[in-house]
Automatic annotation (TrEMBL):
InterPro entries: DUF2000 (IPR018988), Pep_tRNA_hydro_II_dom_sf (IPR023476)
Pfam families cross-referenced by the UniProt entry: DUF2000 (PF09391)
Name this protein carries in UniProt: DUF2000 domain-containing protein
Lineage per the UniProt record: Bacteria, Bacillati, Actinomycetota, Actinomycetes, Pseudonocardiales
Amino acid sequence: MTGMKTKIAVVVRDDLATWQRLNVTAFLVSGIAARFPETVGEPYEDASGQEYLPMFGQPVLVYQADAEALRDTHRKALARELAVAVYTEELFTTDNDVDNRAAVRAVPTEKLGLVGIAVHGGRNAVDKALKGLSLHP
């Protein structure tokens, strides 16, 4: 597993409603799990033998940023060639994956209305891309 050498981080825009922050975070980390299955550990089991789904085998750090800092972090993450998942404002108005992808595809990179990103990559590269951001309270 890549847990010790890599890092997973999510950045959500600080002006979102609480439900939106949680929703954005959940959607974004699903992209990391899908692209990097090695980040997911083994299934869980309680003492009664009940099995549960596996989860990430490393921490997921969640940060907050204003719109400008989020755009800057997005640029830095792409420049460092980190794996990036995006969630844009338009995705709050769609209700399926096909429309979600079409909404992102319709906007050039520099004009995306970002409300959140997730990044995965080497610890140092992720730290540098997120430098200066505050952890979500």
